[in-house]
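User: Can you write out an input/output pair for a complex, sequences first and structure second?

Assistant: Here is one pair. Inputs:
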Amino acid sequence: MFDLQSQDYVRRSASTMTPPMARSHEEQVAKLIDVSRCIGCKACQAACMEWNDLRPEIGHFEGSYQNPDDLGPSVWTLMKFAEYENEQGNLEWLIRKDGCMHCEDPGCLKACPSPGAIVQYANGIVDFISDKCIGCGYCVKGCPFDIPRISKQDHKSYKCTLCSDRVSVGLEPACVKACPTGAIMFGSKADMKQWAGERIEDLKSRGFENAGLYDPAAVGGTHVMYVLHHADKPSLYSGLPDKPEISPVVRGWKGIIKPLALIGIALAALGGFFHWITEGPNEVTDEDEAEGERVLRESETEKTP
Amino acid sequence: MTNTWQDIKNANVVIVMGGNAAEAHPCGFKWVIEAKIENGAKLVVVDPRFTRTASVADYYAPIRPGTDIAFLSGVMHYLLEKDAIQHEYVRAYTNASLIVKDGFGFQDGLFSGYNEETHAYDKSSWDYELDEQGFAMSDDTWQNPRCVINLLKQHVSRYTPEMVSRICGTPQDKFLHVCELIASTAAPDKAMTSLFALGWTQHSVGAQNIRSMAMVQLLLGNIGVAGGGMNALRGHSNIQGLTDVGLLSNQMPGYMNLPLDKEIDLDTYMKTKLFKPLRPGQTSYWQNYRKFFVSFQKSMFGDAATQDNNWAFDWLPKLDVPLYDIIRAFEMMNNGQMTGYICQGFNPLQAFPDRGKIRRGLSKLKFLVTMDPLDTETSRFWQDFGPQNPAKSAEIQTEVFQLPVTCFAEENGSLVNSARWLQWHWKAAEGPGVARSDIWIMSGIFHRLRELYRKEGGAFPDPLLNVTWKYTDPVSPDPEELAKEMNGRALADLVDPATNTVATKAGTLLDGFAQLRDDGTTASGCWIFAGCFTEKGNQMARRDATDPREQGIAPNWAWAWPANRRILYNRASADPDGKPWNPAKPVITWNGTRWVGIDVPDYGPTVKPSDGVGPFIMNAEGMGRLFARDLMAEGPFPEHYEPLESPVENVLHPKVQNNPAARVFADDRAAFGSPDKFPYVATTYRLTEHFHYWTKHALINAILQPEEFIEIGEVLAKEKGIEQGGWVKVSSKRGEVVCKAYVTKRIKPMMVDGKPTHVIGCPIHWGFTGQARKGYGANTLTPSVGDANTQTPEFKAFLVNVEKTHAPVAA
């Protein structure tokens, strides 16, 4: 949402040119969400709505404290509540703040076909640049965490910006500032990992043997990390992916398929050229014209309920 | 709170029982997290539901609503049986050794002196055996069976782990594990803090719930120390201030009592307020009562209060009943005894029990004046909002005046927080529209009433005509001027008897309540606030966060009553010789000549430890009370009584099922349901996303919790065919609520006396005004009965039925 100058970028969607990366001396940042001290109060959600001036519709009760019921173009962060009965038969209420993970290797950016619609800054934040977004939804497919949502109003994709506008002027994200229990921390990725280490030690001393940091390597690590009591089973936390990975199709698109497809397109063009040379241009017959009009008419009728 | 929010971080064990601190006090809860992370504290939660607090707890145990006294008496039994008490503390600082009168006894659920007809006790036997000088007799060896400690042991001996489990539904192993964690803080250098709120107060035995834990804390030596204490987390930003300035109907500012009608003159009134020490050499600070009282009368009536007219004693209202609480007020409206109502900053149609009775009461009034920043349900009680407020406007004759007022951010003033800090705040914006301050409105009403009395006379015009009103702007007195009046000032030159010189000049603002006199030479609107606004300026406006020991005491941040003291009873943080029990977290220490430390001593600053003055200086015996003497309505020891609506018989004494001292009006008794028709236990509570009935008017809060629901366990939901998020009808004898169901694992059936008992949770926030979706309000269901001491309504334990249904039909 916040278009900085291109010297800030380290990655840019659908672009072959290497960004200038003038700010690569900047430290990589990270938000650390310590779910073991989160009380699910939703101050982060309220702060997100206030800072970004978003007001989703007043919904309904949907069978959980989770409200609104899903992420959306105007819901960039959402508390999710999971009731889990552990092996001892004791209840745990696992509350997790969901939102963009700001992957080091962002699947959305990889998938995006619109040049410059998704960028990554030197500090690691992944941002959507709305005026370049074409609303194709590839970022949704590319995201291993099911985060971006397309607006029905303007057909553009939206998600958490990690308050790139605040961070760029030396402030912490709004959710971090609002969190009353210090469950959301923000700083350099190195500092956050160190702090997470201390927290994990404390959790282990309280009987959570599998406590650990969620910073999945399959996406190159993330700039939003979690301290989990059960790092061996992330999916307990309302479906946080155990092994997040960028969909093979998207990965393939940038890897093998995209060059192959480009060759395919080139071959088709070449074929067309030779067809024109050898057979002359295609001509529209009267039958073709009538058939075309019939198809158009039918598609119009289908749209009318 | 005896301690402060910040001080919670010093605890070794944090117990949240009778409250849900993470849910209702998320900002203050940071100090619990701090205790866990920085002090290795264990967080223990005892609650009928697995709450947001429980989600970050080290240990959780379930409990049936309304059985906390049984649980805590079981804890006391455990501590005494295992000898896990702080012996030196208990001997020196509590009344464990004092000997109780022979006439005192307890049998079959009743203490001595019960009168079946009046539902009240003659409490004369609830006291100590006195010697010929009038001092309580004592046996420090605890050999005498009439020692408080021995009577207590005997009293709680019935609360075995089996009995606790049978009454509370808490599995024995869980109960015993909680006991173990609590007992770990009997060590002199360990502390437990008790955080509680309405989960304890809103019961017919509310005050005794809190007393039970206070006794546990005394046995463990956890009162007065850093990281300890009894910490009531107040539910409104200024509800502490409300009680401090005596807005309860039976009180005056500074916890003085309004006279009863039988106290026909000042001498009679003062007879019960002499507070003669009950042990040799004790402070018994309430001996100064007369100074506080006379100074208050001088602030009210100025020159008109004189020695000759007994300081205007006759102009005070006199109570013909123990108190005119809100339950009584609505009873009187329904009976036609109260026909006018000025409702200031209050929304009883949402906030008080038995909504139907509240609506009927309001409908019988001649006039209702509401003063509120919001469009409250009470202001609109007469309007038809469909099933959520099915009023028949044409049949209601009440004339309603809805006066919009400014809110706290639109005026200067002070708020008193849970930790007793008076914090000044400054106006941030103008009020919207025609909103006016409460002060402006009340002043206007006062002036017009007084004018009417002047012109037309009346039955008893004296109090109104004689009230002093010497403000710079009499139409809208300035908050600073009112604060100075609360603080008090010298009305004449005050001579220090020690030096025989003028210590305080006439007209000077007082530095503290020690300067108050009973000869009419001082005035103070609220003696405990003396020191908040002195000649040095507005102490409440101080904002220096320096915390010398980083122990959560910043003495120059705002101002705390009394005397800027941050931890009450802090003399008890040190042993009898004056050395801190916990050398790592000292509060005050005797340095050989005086008490020094990070807090203002709650004690004479130069009183030697060898003088043997007890640390509980407000009590006549100077000790913490394991035996409450005659101060509680239902007994000097807490006893388990079932809620007025309960699914089971009181297994301890079936003939005395409920609190025998509870006041129940006949029509309210008729509206109690029985378990055959209403088999499930319900309890009401708040959610983080909302503040009472206010924030449903705010869009973001409405988005975060949009719609009324109840919580129901999976087992009962399955039994009743109720689906997740489906519609249910919850009914009590008093009314019904149709809303969505949250089917959850967080509420499990409890085995109570061999029977599975189901709990239904009812969040309270939705009504028919504001931005959130319309709701019926949980108070549609709740019974109209209060705590026997305070009349705080029993919102936390009552009976309902629940059935699957369909969405309500819009009107």
